[in-house]
């Protein structure tokens, strides 16, 4: 079955070297139980590995990009071969020396295609593999070329120090939200610049209205209503590392649970449409669908959502994000899926990966 995403987007390179979706709210949404079967869009692998920490029987990771699967493979190898502090150094989450040596320790665990990919990424390995993707390079350009024109390093550090909600709001309104911030933000996070240098242009095919306005409002929310001192995504964007917070899969308390259950993970270089056409195994209980529906027309989205629901089991859950294109089950699918709107809204209010406009959780009937 042909995928509309494969027809619209370029999957030849590494678009994401990290998962820019909050695994904390994903795991709460899916409520994964031991013994269940889960399907996950691989992306860079972080959230797929986070799902393993909940000890399901099987986690199936899918991606149409070999480069994205190479990112997942290297993470799997790192969990097997490295300590948790060494993993942070390899990622670039924390400073350290000898990333090339850490990679060499992991290399024998990789498939031929993954070795070939990472052997050609020596500079990315030296700097930290968490910065190797197109999206991360886009943020690096913002951090190194735009942000210094707007705010000093000391002001960035003050922002990331957090504080009470009242302190964060006052700081944002009085010191951060300057005319320079708004001007450069609107330019750099415009539809054109993001499509060319950050995300794939096809992400915006079905988007209406100002892209920058929506992202700016979500950024304000993340820097005031949420605490930047607890936000690994904001910290990486503004500093290029994790200063005081880590994503779920990188936290020390989750490391052993992931490493001890890697045998439950499998990955495939194929679309979700192809996989569902070929898979004849047990029903799937949990679906991490990332933001795959952003690339699809409303008609294609509804067809695929129905196909996914039918492949699941009663009581199973789907979770996915909308960044700019609104997608959720229509009334015509009420016999298949039940929206868990209150749960989704409460989780979205805590979403540290703040640029998404909506978080959707639906239950299979």
Quaternary class: single chain
Provide the structure class.
Answer: alpha/beta
Number of structurally distinct domains:
2
Radius of gyration: 20 Å
The end-to-end distance, rounded to whole angstroms, is 25 Å
CATH uppermost class of the largest domain: Alpha Beta
How many separate helices?
19
Identify low-pLDDT runs: none
Strand order of the largest sheet: 3-2-1-4-5-7-6
Largest sheet: 7 strands, mixed
- What percentage of residues falls in helices of 4 or more residues? 40-55%
CATH architecture of the largest domain, by name, is: 3-Layer(aba) Sandwich
Corresponding CATH superfamily of the largest domain: Vaccinia Virus protein VP39
Total number of β-strand segments?
7
CATH-defined topology of the largest domain: Rossmann fold
| Mean pLDDT across every amino acid position | 92
Which H/E pattern describes the elements?
A: HHEHEHHHHHHHHHHHHHEHEHEEHE
Q: What proportion strand? A: 5-15%
How would you sum up the global shape?
globular
């Amino acid at each position: 079955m042909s995928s509309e995403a494969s027809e619209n987007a370029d999957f030849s390179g590494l678009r994401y070297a990290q998962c820019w979706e909050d695994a904390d709210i994903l795991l709460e949404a899916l409520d994964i139980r031991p013994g269940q079967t889960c399907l996950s869009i691989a992306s860079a692998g972080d959230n797929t590995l986070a799902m393993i920490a909940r000890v399901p029987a099987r986690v199936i990771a899918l991606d149409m990009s070999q480069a994205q699967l190479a990112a997942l493979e290297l993470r799997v190898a790192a969990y097997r071969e490295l300590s948790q502090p060494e993993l942070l150094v390899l990622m670039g989450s924390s400073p350290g020396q000898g990333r090339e040596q850490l990679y060499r320790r992991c290399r024998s665990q990789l498939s031929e295609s993954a070795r070939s990919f990472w052997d050609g990424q020596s500079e990315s390995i030296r700097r930290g593999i968490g910065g190797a993707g197109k999206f991360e390079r886009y943020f690096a350009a913002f951090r190194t070329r735009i942000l210094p024109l707007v705010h000093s390093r000391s002001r960035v550090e003050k922002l990331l120090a957090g504080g009470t909600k009242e302190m964060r709001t006052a700081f944002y309104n009085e010191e951060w939200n300057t005319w320079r911030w708004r001007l450069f933000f609107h330019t750099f996070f415009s539809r054109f610049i993001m499509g060319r240098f950050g995300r794939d242009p096809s992400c915006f095919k079905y988007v209406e209205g100002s892209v920058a306005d929506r992202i700016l409002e979500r950024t304000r929310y993340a820097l005031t209503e949420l605490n930047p001192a607890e936000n690994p995504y904001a910290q990486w964007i503004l500093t290029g590392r994790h200063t005081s917070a880590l994503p779920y899969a990188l936290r020390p308390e989750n490391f052993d649970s992931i490493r001890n259950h890697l045998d439950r993970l499998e990955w495939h270089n194929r679309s979700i449409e192809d996989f569902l056409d070929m898979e004849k195994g047990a029903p799937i209980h949990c679906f991490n669908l990332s933001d795959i529906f952003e690339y699809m027309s409303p008609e294609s989205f509804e067809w695929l959502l129905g196909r996914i629901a039918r492949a699941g089991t009663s009581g199973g859950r789907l979770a996915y994000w909308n960044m700019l294109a609104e997608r959720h089950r229509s009334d015509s699918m009420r016999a298949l899926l039940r929206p868990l709107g209150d749960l989704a809204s409460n989780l979205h209010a805590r979403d540290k990966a703040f640029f998404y406009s909506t978080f959707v959780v639906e239950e299979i009937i």
